[in-house]
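Posting for a labmate who doesn't have an account.
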Amino acid sequence: MRPIEDDTKPAPSRRTFCSGLGAIAFLGQGCTIGTDFESPSAELPDQFFHTREKDAQARGAAEWWKKFNDPALDRLVSMGLAQNLDIRKAIARIEQSRAILSGAGYPVSGVSRIGEAKATGGGADGRSDSGFVRAEASWQLDLYGQLKREREAASYRLASSFADANVARTTLLSELVTAYADLRFYQELIRVNQRVVASREETLQATLSERAAGESSELEEVTELDVAQARSLVATAKAELPEATILFFKSASRIGALLGQAWERPRSGLDKKAPQPEADLSKLKVGIPVDLVRNRPDVLFAEYRLAEAVALAGSVEAELYPRLQLTGNLNINYSGSDWLPSAGFFRVGLDVPLFDLPERQAKVAAQQARASELLLEWNEKVVEAVEEVQNALVSLKFHKEAVAATKDSLDAKRDVLQLARTGYIAGEIGFLQVLDAERSLLTSENALALDRRNFAVDFVQLNVALGGSYG
C-alpha cells in the first residue's frame, strides 16, 4: 500500500547508510533511512460459517439498508449521513490532516525582517531617517530521508483520517438502523398490548354477564375468583402499555440525536403505524474473510495508523545521523536617502548527534515499539471482524427460522383462543382455559415481534461487520 498523494519513487526496503558525506552534500541528495511500509497479512479461513462462497466480494457503493424497502428509513439514513455530528467532526479532522500534510517535510525555513529607526530634529540638520532590511533562510539537506519520511507519515495520517470518517459513517448506520428497528418493535408491542387489552376486556364482559345471569357451565361455575382474575389480567395488560410507550419515545429521541437534532416529539412518519422492517436476503453476498481487510474501514484505519508509525520510526531513526543545514543571510541598511553597503553571510551547519545520542536512540526504540503495538492492534481488528461476521451470520440464519416458526405458532394460537372463547360462552369449557389461551397468544405475539426485531438487527450487524457500504 502506498501513501496517498505521494509521487516519490520507492525507497530501499532495508536500512541503508550513506557514505561520501561531502559529495552528497554538494549534490544535495541522500538516501532513505528506515523501512518502507508493507501492508500486513493475517491467516484467515477460506469461508464464513454457513456459507459456500469462495469468491471475493467488494462492498462498493451497495446501499444495504435499502433492502428493507422502507422509504422512511431511507430518508433517515440520508439525513444522518449528512447531519450526524460525529461524521462532521471526523470530516473536520480530515481538514486538519490535510493542513499537516501541506507543511510536512518542507526543507526551507527562514525569516525576513524590516526594521526602521527614524529621528527628526530641528535646526540646520533637519530630519534624518535610517533603517534596514534583513532576510535569512535555511535549507536542510535531506541526506537520510527524514523529510521524506515526515511527508509519508503525514500522508498516511490523512489516509487514516478518511478511514476514520468512514468508521463514523458505519457506526452511524449501525446505530441509526438499529434504533429504527427498535422503534418499530416498540410500536408493535404497543399494538399487541392494545389488542390484548381489548381481548381481555371482552373476556371480562363475558365473565360478568355469566356471573350476573347466575349461569354456570357444565364443567365449572363462574365464581368471584374468575371475575377477579379477569379484572386482574385487564389491569396487567394496561400496565404494560406505558413501558412500551416510553421505550418507543426513547428510540425516537435516539434517532433525532443521531441526526444531530433535538426532537420534542417523534417526527412525521415515525409516530404513524408501520410494519416492522424485514430485509430481503435474496441477493445477499458475504464474500470471504480476506475481503474484510480491504472492506472494513476500522481495519483500514488500523493499517494506516501502522503505516504512519513505520514512517515516523524512519524519521526519528534519521536523527541518529549527522544533519547538514545551509543558511544564508542578507542585510541592507540605509540612512537618509543613501543606501549603505549591504552585508551578508553564508553558513554551513553540521548537526552531529553526540552527547544526546542515547536520547535519540531511546526515541527510535519507542517509535519502533509503537509500530509493533499497532501491528498487533491491526491483527486484533481483523480477528474481531471475522468473529462479528460469523456471529451475525449464525444469528441471521436462526432468527429467520424463528420468525417463520413463530408465525405458524401464532396462527394456531389465534384459532385456539377463538375456540376457547366460543366454548366458554357456550358453557362447554372453563374460564381458566380461556385465560391460558390468551396468555399463550400474547406470548407468541410478543415473541414474533422480538424475532422480527432481532432478524432486522442481525441484518444490520452483518452488513456493518462486512464493512459497508456507507453510501
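Reply:
Got it, the C-alpha cells are right above this. The two ends are 24 Å apart (CA to CA).
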